[in-house]
Amino acid sequence: MSDFKIAVMGAAGRMGRELIRAAHANPECTVIGGVEREGAPALGQDLGTLAGIGELGVKVTDDPLELIARADAILDFTAPKSSVEFAGLAANARIVHVLGTTGFSDEDEAAIAAAARHATIIKAGNMSLGVNLLVALTRKVAQALGEDFDIEILEMHHKHKVDAPSGTALMLGQAAAEGRGISHKERSVRVRDGHTGPRRRGDIGYATLRGGNVVGEHTVLFVGEGERIELTHRATDRGIYARGAVQAALWGRGKPPGLYSMMDVLGL
Asked: pLDDT (tens digit, 9 = 90+) per residue, 206-255?
């Protein structure tokens, strides 16, 4: 067993439990603890018991400062406010912060970028290999096809997801904008309601669906006159994100401080 010590933020959540399982299954890693909010029911529970893999002998705490001081890396799929706090703590500890949280404001993004001057932060709206290949393909196809092809991004997630469009959808839209050489912020259309008029040439549209227990589905449509190209990724197991996060943490070991992405991890 390696001594690469990993702590899991939001340990009792669905992704937190997946992260515990993925980190424990990797022979290069040791899970040293997890964090939950003050007053959470899971406080004091064994992480292995929470994750359904048997006792690990490490407990859930509400003291991230103490835990991060002992860790080599933290895995964080929590909420923007918490993740910004954890980024600051990771910067103080000079460790790896794998950040899969989405829904950040511009102010949050600036705080994370500042923390990356001292922490090795690997930030991605999606940690799966397949999705990051989809991002690379989206950029290439957008570059190859002119504005005669309209770009629309369709995403669906479970009914408990709180941000929209998803972080992955926004990654895909940003990649399409980069391929086209346009500003994503200026050309993305997040909402259509009422009498909108005709579609503006060159815009990147989004459609968001929520329901049931869908893990994650994303389709990028390039729609031209008489033909349509669709690039699709469907996730059926949250474990793909957790395994990607662990891979990212191990990749970040020994890397200098900075803000990285899964594209860096995967060499894309």
From this structure: 999 999 999 999 999 999 999 999 999 999 998 999 999 999 999 999 99
Q: What is the pLDDT of residues 152-202, one digit of tens each?
A: 999 999 999 999 999 899 999 999 999 999 999 999 999 999 999 999 999
Residue 200: both structure tokens together: 């503006």
Q: Please provide the DSSP assignment of the chain as one string.
A: ---EEEEEETTTSHHHHHHHHHHHHSTTEEEEEEE--TT-TTTT-BHHHHHTS---S-BEES-HHHHHHH-SEEEE-S-HHHHHHHHHHHHHHT-EEEE------HHHHHHHHHHTTTSEEEE-S---HHHHHHHHHHHHHHHHS-TTSEEEEEEEE-TT--SSS-HHHHHHHHHHHHHHTS-HHHHEE----S---SPPTT-EEEEEEE-TT--EEEEEEEEETTEEEEEEEEE--THHHHHHHHHHHHHHTTPPSEEE-HHHHHT-
Rounded CA gap, 135 and 261, in Å? 12
Tens digit of each residue's pLDDT (9 = 90 or more) over 56-72? 999 999 999 999 999 99
Both tokens of residue 204? 């990147």
- Catalogue the active-site residues: 157, 161
Residues 6+ apart with CB under 8 A from 4: 28, 29, 30, 72, 73, 249, 250, 253
- Across the chain, what does the average pLDDT equal? 95
From CA 184, how far away is CA 170, in angstroms rounded? 9
